[in-house]
Amino acid sequence: MSSPADGGVQSNISAYWSRHADSYDAYQLERLRHDEVHQTWLNVWRRALPPPPATVLDVGTGTGHVSLLLAELGYSVYGIDLAEGMLDNAGAKAARLPFAPPILAVGDAVAPDFPPESFDVITARYVLWTLRTPAIALANWRRLLRPGGRLVAVDSTWFPDGIRSDPATAKEADFQHLYDDEVLTVLPLAQAISIDATADVVRESGFSDVRVTALDEVLELDRKYGVAPGHHVQTQYLVTAVNGD
Ligand SMILES: C[S@@+](CC[C@H](N)C(=O)[O-])C[C@H]1O[C@@H](n2cnc3c(N)ncnc32)[C@H](O)[C@@H]1O
Protein backbone atom coordinates (compact mmCIF):
# COMPACT_ATOMS: atom_id res chain seq x y z
CA MET A 1 0.00 0.00 0.00
CA SER A 2 2.98 2.37 0.09
CA SER A 3 2.88 4.94 -2.67
CA PRO A 4 5.59 4.76 -5.35
CA ALA A 5 6.58 8.30 -4.33
CA ASP A 6 7.66 7.39 -0.83
CA GLY A 7 10.78 5.46 -1.84
CA GLY A 8 9.95 2.53 0.45
CA VAL A 9 10.02 4.72 3.53
CA GLN A 10 6.39 3.97 4.32
CA SER A 11 6.97 0.21 4.07
CA ASN A 12 9.80 0.52 6.58
CA ILE A 13 7.65 2.61 8.93
CA SER A 14 4.81 0.07 8.73
CA ALA A 15 7.19 -2.85 9.29
CA TYR A 16 8.62 -1.08 12.35
CA TRP A 17 5.17 -0.62 13.90
CA SER A 18 4.20 -4.22 13.12
CA ARG A 19 7.37 -5.47 14.81
CA HIS A 20 6.56 -3.46 17.93
CA ALA A 21 2.80 -3.99 17.93
CA ASP A 22 2.69 -6.41 20.87
CA SER A 23 4.81 -4.32 23.19
CA TYR A 24 2.99 -1.13 22.12
CA ASP A 25 -0.35 -2.75 22.84
CA ALA A 26 0.79 -4.22 26.15
CA TYR A 27 1.74 -0.74 27.33
CA GLN A 28 -1.56 0.79 26.15
CA LEU A 29 -3.56 -1.99 27.82
CA GLU A 30 -1.67 -1.69 31.07
CA ARG A 31 -2.42 2.05 31.15
CA LEU A 32 -6.10 1.64 30.32
CA ARG A 33 -6.51 -0.81 33.18
CA HIS A 34 -6.36 2.22 35.47
CA ASP A 35 -9.91 3.51 35.50
CA GLU A 36 -8.80 7.14 35.74
CA VAL A 37 -6.73 6.71 32.56
CA HIS A 38 -9.65 5.09 30.76
CA GLN A 39 -12.05 7.82 31.92
CA THR A 40 -9.61 10.62 31.10
CA TRP A 41 -9.23 9.50 27.50
CA LEU A 42 -12.98 8.95 27.15
CA ASN A 43 -13.44 12.54 28.32
CA VAL A 44 -10.82 13.88 25.89
CA TRP A 45 -12.76 12.42 22.95
CA ARG A 46 -16.21 13.11 24.41
CA ARG A 47 -15.39 16.81 24.76
CA ALA A 48 -13.80 17.15 21.32
CA LEU A 49 -16.32 15.27 19.18
CA PRO A 50 -19.96 16.08 18.42
CA PRO A 51 -22.24 13.77 20.37
CA PRO A 52 -23.03 10.37 18.80
CA PRO A 53 -24.44 9.27 16.43
CA ALA A 54 -21.60 10.29 14.14
CA THR A 55 -19.30 8.43 11.77
CA VAL A 56 -15.58 8.60 12.55
CA LEU A 57 -12.47 7.63 10.62
CA ASP A 58 -9.51 6.96 12.93
CA VAL A 59 -6.39 7.20 10.77
CA GLY A 60 -3.28 5.35 11.91
CA THR A 61 -5.49 3.50 14.37
CA GLY A 62 -2.64 1.23 15.41
CA THR A 63 -3.71 -1.21 18.11
CA GLY A 64 -7.08 0.53 18.26
CA HIS A 65 -6.75 2.76 21.30
CA VAL A 66 -8.91 5.54 19.86
CA SER A 67 -11.18 3.33 17.72
CA LEU A 68 -12.21 1.20 20.66
CA LEU A 69 -12.85 4.12 23.01
CA LEU A 70 -14.95 5.86 20.36
CA ALA A 71 -16.94 2.68 19.74
CA GLU A 72 -17.49 2.49 23.51
CA LEU A 73 -18.87 6.04 23.38
CA GLY A 74 -21.38 4.97 20.71
CA TYR A 75 -19.75 6.27 17.54
CA SER A 76 -19.71 4.37 14.27
CA VAL A 77 -15.97 3.94 13.75
CA TYR A 78 -13.65 2.95 10.92
CA GLY A 79 -9.98 2.48 11.76
CA ILE A 80 -7.21 2.20 9.17
CA ASP A 81 -3.50 1.55 9.45
CA LEU A 82 -0.75 0.22 7.20
CA ALA A 83 0.91 -1.87 9.93
CA GLU A 84 -0.89 -5.19 9.86
CA GLY A 85 0.69 -6.27 13.14
CA MET A 86 -0.87 -3.25 14.87
CA LEU A 87 -4.25 -4.01 13.25
CA ASP A 88 -4.06 -7.64 14.41
CA ASN A 89 -3.91 -6.44 18.00
CA ALA A 90 -6.76 -3.98 17.41
CA GLY A 91 -8.86 -6.71 15.78
CA ALA A 92 -8.33 -9.15 18.65
CA LYS A 93 -9.61 -6.58 21.13
CA ALA A 94 -12.47 -5.47 18.86
CA ALA A 95 -13.69 -9.08 18.64
CA ARG A 96 -14.24 -9.13 22.40
CA LEU A 97 -16.25 -5.90 22.68
CA PRO A 98 -19.78 -6.08 24.10
CA PHE A 99 -20.84 -3.20 21.80
CA ALA A 100 -20.63 -2.50 18.04
CA PRO A 101 -16.91 -2.75 17.25
CA PRO A 102 -14.93 -0.47 14.94
CA ILE A 103 -14.48 -1.64 11.36
CA LEU A 104 -10.72 -2.11 10.93
CA ALA A 105 -8.87 -2.28 7.63
CA VAL A 106 -5.47 -1.87 6.05
CA GLY A 107 -5.33 1.63 4.59
CA ASP A 108 -3.01 4.54 4.00
CA ALA A 109 -3.69 7.52 6.25
CA VAL A 110 -2.20 9.79 3.59
CA ALA A 111 -4.85 8.79 1.04
CA PRO A 112 -7.70 6.93 2.76
CA ASP A 113 -9.78 5.06 0.23
CA PHE A 114 -13.33 6.26 0.99
CA PRO A 115 -15.86 8.31 -1.00
CA PRO A 116 -15.92 12.09 -0.43
CA GLU A 117 -17.91 13.37 2.56
CA SER A 118 -18.07 9.94 4.23
CA PHE A 119 -17.24 11.07 7.76
CA ASP A 120 -18.33 13.53 10.46
CA VAL A 121 -14.99 13.31 12.26
CA ILE A 122 -11.44 12.21 11.52
CA THR A 123 -9.27 11.34 14.51
CA ALA A 124 -5.51 10.90 14.56
CA ARG A 125 -3.69 10.21 17.82
CA TYR A 126 0.13 10.16 17.68
CA VAL A 127 0.01 9.92 13.87
CA LEU A 128 0.80 13.33 12.36
CA TRP A 129 4.39 13.25 13.69
CA THR A 130 5.13 10.01 11.83
CA LEU A 131 3.19 10.82 8.67
CA ARG A 132 4.83 11.45 5.34
CA THR A 133 3.34 14.40 3.43
CA PRO A 134 0.97 15.53 6.20
CA ALA A 135 -0.23 18.44 4.04
CA ILE A 136 -1.42 16.02 1.36
CA ALA A 137 -3.00 13.79 3.99
CA LEU A 138 -4.85 16.73 5.54
CA ALA A 139 -6.17 17.87 2.15
CA ASN A 140 -7.43 14.33 1.56
CA TRP A 141 -9.01 14.22 5.01
CA ARG A 142 -10.89 17.45 4.28
CA ARG A 143 -12.39 15.82 1.20
CA LEU A 144 -13.54 12.86 3.31
CA LEU A 145 -15.22 15.09 5.88
CA ARG A 146 -18.76 16.34 5.46
CA PRO A 147 -19.16 20.14 5.50
CA GLY A 148 -18.67 21.24 9.09
CA GLY A 149 -16.93 17.96 9.92
CA ARG A 150 -14.12 17.94 12.47
CA LEU A 151 -10.51 16.93 12.66
CA VAL A 152 -9.53 15.83 16.16
CA ALA A 153 -5.83 15.04 16.56
CA VAL A 154 -3.68 14.41 19.61
CA ASP A 155 0.05 14.76 19.31
CA SER A 156 3.14 16.29 20.90
CA THR A 157 6.56 17.60 20.06
CA TRP A 158 8.05 14.22 20.82
CA PHE A 159 11.66 14.92 19.74
CA PRO A 160 12.30 18.69 19.83
CA ASP A 161 16.06 18.12 20.29
CA GLY A 162 16.22 15.66 17.40
CA ILE A 163 15.64 11.91 17.47
CA ARG A 164 19.34 11.19 17.11
CA SER A 165 20.38 13.18 20.20
CA ASP A 166 17.49 12.19 22.45
CA PRO A 167 18.83 10.13 25.40
CA ALA A 168 15.57 8.21 25.83
CA THR A 169 15.29 7.13 22.19
CA ALA A 170 19.04 6.43 22.05
CA LYS A 171 18.28 3.27 24.06
CA GLU A 172 15.75 2.13 21.42
CA ALA A 173 18.04 0.74 18.72
CA ASP A 174 15.29 -0.32 16.30
CA PHE A 175 13.63 3.07 16.57
CA GLN A 176 16.91 4.87 15.89
CA HIS A 177 17.57 2.52 13.00
CA LEU A 178 14.21 3.21 11.35
CA TYR A 179 13.96 6.93 12.00
CA ASP A 180 17.26 7.65 10.26
CA ASP A 181 18.08 10.79 8.31
CA GLU A 182 16.48 9.52 5.10
CA VAL A 183 13.19 8.81 6.87
CA LEU A 184 13.27 12.03 8.83
CA THR A 185 13.57 14.10 5.67
CA VAL A 186 10.14 12.84 4.55
CA LEU A 187 8.47 13.24 7.97
CA PRO A 188 8.26 17.02 8.37
CA LEU A 189 6.68 16.97 11.84
CA ALA A 190 8.79 14.26 13.52
CA GLN A 191 11.27 16.72 15.06
CA ALA A 192 9.03 19.78 15.31
CA ILE A 193 10.02 22.07 18.16
CA SER A 194 6.52 23.46 18.71
CA ILE A 195 2.99 22.10 18.32
CA ASP A 196 2.42 25.26 16.26
CA ALA A 197 4.08 23.44 13.35
CA THR A 198 1.25 20.88 13.42
CA ALA A 199 -1.42 23.56 13.79
CA ASP A 200 0.12 25.50 10.89
CA VAL A 201 -0.07 22.52 8.50
CA VAL A 202 -3.69 21.95 9.51
CA ARG A 203 -4.49 25.61 8.86
CA GLU A 204 -2.58 25.73 5.56
CA SER A 205 -4.50 22.65 4.41
CA GLY A 206 -7.72 24.70 4.46
CA PHE A 207 -9.20 23.76 7.83
CA SER A 208 -10.74 26.57 9.83
CA ASP A 209 -11.12 27.24 13.55
CA VAL A 210 -7.84 25.47 14.34
CA ARG A 211 -7.43 25.17 18.10
CA VAL A 212 -4.63 23.77 20.22
CA THR A 213 -5.31 22.70 23.81
CA ALA A 214 -2.74 21.30 26.22
CA LEU A 215 -3.98 18.05 27.75
CA ASP A 216 -2.93 18.79 31.32
CA GLU A 217 -4.97 15.89 32.62
CA VAL A 218 -2.97 13.44 30.46
CA LEU A 219 0.28 15.05 31.63
CA GLU A 220 -0.76 14.46 35.24
CA LEU A 221 -1.41 10.78 34.50
CA ASP A 222 1.96 10.45 32.78
CA ARG A 223 3.62 11.96 35.85
CA LYS A 224 1.74 9.51 38.06
CA TYR A 225 2.12 6.29 36.05
CA GLY A 226 5.18 7.01 33.92
CA VAL A 227 5.55 6.78 30.14
CA ALA A 228 6.53 4.12 27.63
CA PRO A 229 10.21 3.27 27.10
CA GLY A 230 11.88 5.78 24.80
CA HIS A 231 9.54 8.59 25.89
CA HIS A 232 9.64 11.55 28.27
CA VAL A 233 6.87 12.94 30.41
CA GLN A 234 5.76 15.83 28.23
CA THR A 235 2.66 17.77 27.32
CA GLN A 236 0.36 16.29 24.72
CA TYR A 237 -1.95 18.55 22.76
CA LEU A 238 -5.43 18.27 21.35
CA VAL A 239 -5.55 19.88 17.90
CA THR A 240 -9.06 20.41 16.58
CA ALA A 241 -10.24 22.01 13.36
CA VAL A 242 -13.35 22.35 11.24
CA ASN A 243 -13.90 21.57 7.56
CA GLY A 244 -15.56 24.77 6.42
CA ASP A 245 -15.80 28.43 7.35
C1 LIG B 1 2.38 5.89 17.52
S1 LIG B 1 1.32 4.83 16.66
C2 LIG B 1 -0.28 5.47 17.15
C3 LIG B 1 -1.37 4.43 17.11
C4 LIG B 1 -2.74 4.86 17.63
N1 LIG B 1 -3.28 5.97 16.86
C5 LIG B 1 -2.72 5.21 19.09
O1 LIG B 1 -3.23 6.27 19.47
O2 LIG B 1 -2.23 4.39 19.90
C6 LIG B 1 1.45 5.44 14.99
C7 LIG B 1 0.63 4.61 14.01
O3 LIG B 1 0.57 5.31 12.77
C8 LIG B 1 0.60 4.33 11.75
N2 LIG B 1 0.95 4.96 10.48
C9 LIG B 1 2.05 5.67 10.16
N3 LIG B 1 1.98 6.09 8.89
C10 LIG B 1 0.80 5.62 8.40
C11 LIG B 1 0.16 5.73 7.13
N4 LIG B 1 0.69 6.41 6.12
N5 LIG B 1 -1.03 5.12 6.98
C12 LIG B 1 -1.61 4.44 8.00
N6 LIG B 1 -1.04 4.31 9.21
C13 LIG B 1 0.14 4.90 9.41
C14 LIG B 1 1.61 3.34 12.24
O4 LIG B 1 1.53 2.10 11.55
C15 LIG B 1 1.22 3.25 13.71
O5 LIG B 1 0.26 2.24 13.91
TrEMBL record:
InterPro entries linked to this entry: Methyltransf_11, SAM-dependent_MTases_sf
Molecular function terms, GO-annotated: methyltransferase activity
Organism: Tenggerimyces flavus
Residue stretches making up the Methyltransferase type domain: 57-152
Signal peptide stretch: none
Enzyme Commission number: 2.1.1.-
CDD domains xref list: AdoMet_MTases
Keyword annotations from UniProtKB, A to Z: Methyltransferase, Transferase
Transmembrane regions: none
Stated name of the protein: Class I SAM-dependent methyltransferase
UniProt-listed PANTHER family: 2-METHOXY-6-POLYPRENYL-1,4-BENZOQUINOL METHYLASE, MITOCHONDRIAL, METHYLTRANSFERASE
One Gene Ontology biological process: methylation
